[in-house]
Amino acid sequence: MAPKKTPTPAAASPQAVKSSIHSSASAAPTKPSTANLQQRSQTTSSTTSPNLKTALNNALNQGTITANQTAQNLKTSSARSSNPQDARQILEGVWNGYVDKTAQRTKLLDVFLAFLIVVGVLQFVYCVIAGNYPFNAFLSGFSATVGQFVLTASLRIQTNPENKKEFETISDERAFADFVFGSMILHFFCVNFIN
């Protein structure tokens, strides 16, 4: 019997090419072998996060994606995580949104919160470097800083225009009065604790 003659690619008809494409596209992806999976997981362990690696290995075991799709997913995920331009754009977007949408009063409270953080850090560093001989003085000052931070954060939350529906019954004046009253009590106890 004479061997069957297969047409060359130039001689193949368009219908034959279409049918071969459809038959190869509709074929189910083959399940990779265990050795291939282990080799892929070893080569990708340094470039992917554990969750991504686990998800990709599960998909490969189930045969829902092919090795080419896995390599493409790994390239795009490592490109996303290593692009400093994206991180800078995200930070610029957050900063621009904060500057444009935040009320002036809220920004003022944020500056005071940042000041309290700096003061607390300086007090702690001084305690570590110079010692804490009058320990109750350090505790009093640090407690005043932390307490004032908490009171200011509470004032910021209550007076923020975006939180009006959560604090409908509390006016801005009432929130400020609570802040002043709480601050007076806090500092009264801190001054008495120094003695």
Automatic annotation (TrEMBL):
GO biological process: protein N-linked glycosylation
Positions of the UniProt region annotated as Disordered: 1-54
Ranges of compositional bias, category Low complexity: 1-14, 23-49
Protein keywords: Endoplasmic reticulum, Membrane, Transmembrane, Transmembrane helix
UniProt pathway: Protein modification; protein glycosylation
Organism superkingdom: Eukaryota
Subcellular location: Endoplasmic reticulum membrane
Keyword Transmembrane helix: yes
A Pfam short name: DAD
GO (cellular component) term, any one: oligosaccharyltransferase complex
Family according to the record: Belongs to the DAD/OST2 family.
Name recorded for this polypeptide: Dolichyl-diphosphooligosaccharide--protein glycosyltransferase subunit OST2
Taxonomic lineage from the root: Eukaryota, Fungi, Dikarya, Ascomycota, Pezizomycotina
